[in-house]
Write a sequence for this structure.
């Protein structure tokens, strides 16, 4: 009876993993961590657009674009965390906070969709828009001193 080969049962490594293992045992220093600053700024900008749109989703019908932008920000943050590796701890913490914010925004967007669906089954929107454009708009113009 022969012994199994020494690598039996081990998962196969791809080229990137093999290069990392070779670099580790060759004594070469690891590759420098990529700066996450530009990615963090991009994620922050997408969240700055998506979260207000989600917040205004119930009265202004902007929930779907807001949820899409928030989902995109979550996807960017999740991908950046997967590729971060040995980035600076403060950048990782900011990235994790942005990811948590995106998750919270997605939960809020989902709940606002449920509320909006319920409000669609009620006469809420017809009354709300009549008030907004007729009575509310007039009161706002008078308060600003622009009404007659």
């Amino acid at each position: 009876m022969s012994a199994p080969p020494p690598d039996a049962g081990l998962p196969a490594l791809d080229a990137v993993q093999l290069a990392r293992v070779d670099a580790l045992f060759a004594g070469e220093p690891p590759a420098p961590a990529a700066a996450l600053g530009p990615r963090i700024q991009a994620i922050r900008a997408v969240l700055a657009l998506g979260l207000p749109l989600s917040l205004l989703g119930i009265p202004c019908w902007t929930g779907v674009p807001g949820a899409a932008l928030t989902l995109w920000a979550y996807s960017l943050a999740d991908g950046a965390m997967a590729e971060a590796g040995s980035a600076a701890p403060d950048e990782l913490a900011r990235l994790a906070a942005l990811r948590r914010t995106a998750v919270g925004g997605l939960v809020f967007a989902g709940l606002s969709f449920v509320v909006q669906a319920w409000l669609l089954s009620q006469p809420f929107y017809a009354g709300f828009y009549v008030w907004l454009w007729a009575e509310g708009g007039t009161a706002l113009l008078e308060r600003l001193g622009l009404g007659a």
Q: What stands out?
A: The two ends are 102 Å apart (CA to CA).
